[in-house]
Amino acid sequence: MANFKSKLMTESQTSSNKTPVPQITLLRRWSFFFVYLLFFPTLLQLIFGVFSFSLEEWGNWFGGLLFRGLPGALLLLAALRLPRRAAPVLMGSVCTAAALFNLLDIFLLVNFGTLFDYGTLQLMCIAPAGEVRGFFQLFFMRLSTWVILLLYPAAGVIIFTVKKQKLFWSTLTILTLGVLIFFNCTARESRSKVPSPAARMKHFVQSWQKSRRQITMDSTSAALQAANSDKEALYLLIIGESHSRRRSSLYGALRDTTPQLKKLYRSRQIFRFDNAVTPHVMTQLALPGMLTLAGKDIENFYKYPSLPDIFRKAGFKVWYIFNQMPDTESALPFLAAAKRSDCFKSFSNPVIRYDVQMLNEVKKILDSPGSKKFLILHLKGNHWKYAETFPEEMRHFSLTPGSSSKETLLNEYDDSLRALDAFLFQMLQLLQARKKNAFLLYLPDHGEALYEEDDFAGHTDLFPTAASAELPMFLWISPSFARPELLTAVQKNLKTSFLSSDLPHFFMELAGITSPLFAPERSFINPRYKKTPRRVSTRGIDYETMKNKTTPISEPQ
Ligand SMILES: [Zn+2]
Predict the structure, then answer these.
(1) What is the Å distance from ligand 1's center to 378 Cα?
(2) Rounded CA gap, 81 and 207, in Å?
(3) Which of 114, 343, 368, 499 is the most buried (most CB within 10 A)?
């Protein structure tokens, strides 16, 4: 792109040295770039938006037309009103910025079925620089990324170099067809509609305003009723991160990635649940359902009572220990629910540490005065970059020399699982030593895709895979657990379908919390539990269909 840009600069400069070029000629010379900038966004909108029309969309189209006119008007103004030397600079900046923006849009659309918006910007801002870089590196391994990277500037070069009108239009037609075919091949069934630029601008501003609003959940606890008759209790909820059920030996994976948990399971010391699924394959979207009674209404989660509030009302002291990304409240709104605890402690500032380093803090809490305690530990877990989730001395599989980049990634993931396994084992030992009425429930926010389908590793809510939606989940209870009658129910429902947005109800039943808010039809160990179809992702994909359609999955052993 730099080449033809410089060619253009010299062209306008050399001609201006000889005789003054009429401003209109300058504008004509730039017109190719203008066509180029309009070409892709218009085409995307045609491909993704043309199939359904509503009045509102027509309005958006009109608005979009006006909005598209803006850079055009800016170019026109620059060409006609600015001094000849300044005009190309401004025009060049406008065009370059617009071209980069287009390129980012196409990249996001092909890989995630979404366009650049405020949410994407926020994610980029809160993620450590290394993570963003690594994330793009991951996608540079994909063919589609290279097609975009070559096609986009190629289109520009062709539009610029083709002088003859006839050739120009036929090239444009061929390009259009090429792009249509390309998107049909890569965009899969998403067909997310591309909103007009005006609609996007409105959405961007709205999300920005929403993110600046401080979410407080004080009012949700005002009329809350919850009770618990335990004399003493020690209940733990451990929330993992990106934990793949399929790669865990607890669930039959051949590699021994979770040796301790497997042993505990085989000696019947923990209950393993085989049919847990998340409705959202992304932390920010999964946690509101796990921490509040919002259920599916995660947009308005802050209007519902939170798990910490319910436990506090029932006489517990509640801790929430957070070891994820730095807690930028606007980017992780669910933290408003976490902060309803008596004590919220973030381990992630200033540096994210290994989960195992939380043990000392947990010990202190267990030894502190108070008879009824509820702890939520939110782990760094097995999030990418996997190698950063365990200390060097814990390398086991990733010591294998001569591995391909894919094998290395898998080895590092498996080592990350071993570190989690060791941490959970030590947690259980702490609890066992205390001989109290206690239980510990573990489940992650979502799973992780590791090349099961599409040659893809990671997780995205827009393109969920069965492996990234399935959750490993287990329960440990102490010998002096207060509600032994529940054990038969637990035992009977190890394979019952469960959606993690129903977690608060299941958890209330385990902890013996009575409240008008408790919905027995949403607690999968309750006789009144009602199975409902499980939808995954904001696109509402049926989990069973996804599971059956994508890859044959061996049932857990
Ligand atoms: Zn997550």
Answers:
(1) 10
(2) 36
(3) 499
Q: What type of residue sits at position 288?
A: P
Do 136 and 260 fall within a single domain?
no
What are 415-469's pLDDT values in tens digits?
999 999 999 999 999 999 998 999 999 999 999 999 887 677 888 777 788 999 9
Residue 327 CA to ligand 1 center (angstroms) comes to 14
Residue 450 Cα, ligand 1 centroid: separation in angstroms?
A: 15
- Ligand 1 centroid to Cα of residue 460, in Å, is 9
- The reported pTM is 0.74
pLDDT in the model for residue 53:
40
What is the whole-number distance in angstroms between the Cα of residue 451 and the centre of ligand 1? Answer: 18
Distance (Å) from CA 162 to ligand 1 centroid: 48
- Residue 234 banded pLDDT, cuts 50, 70, 90: very high
Please tell me whether residues 320 and 252 are part of one structural domain: yes
Inside any domain, residue 225: no
**What's the gap in Å between 557 CA and the centre of ligand 1?**
26
Distances, alpha carbon 211 to alpha carbons 207, 298, 348, 447, in Å: 6, 15, 21, 27
Q: Of the given ranges (73-77, 316-320, 479-483, 537-541), which has the lowest mean pLDDT? A: 73-77
Ligand 1 centroid from CA 99, angstroms: 32
DSSP string, 485-531: THHHHHHHTTTS-EEGGGHHHHHHHHTTEE-TT--GGG-TTSTT---
506 contact partners, CB below 8 Å, separation of at least 6: 498, 522, 523, 524, 525
252, 310: one domain = yes
Residue 23 domain-assigned? yes
- Give the Å distance between the CA of 240 and the centre of ligand 1: 8
Least confident of 206-215, 304-313, 412-421, 435-444: 206-215
Same domain? For 245 and 105 the reply is: no
**120: CA distance to ligand 1 center in Å?**
15
Q: Is residue 484 part of a domain?
A: yes
Domain hosting residue 32, numbered range: 2-211
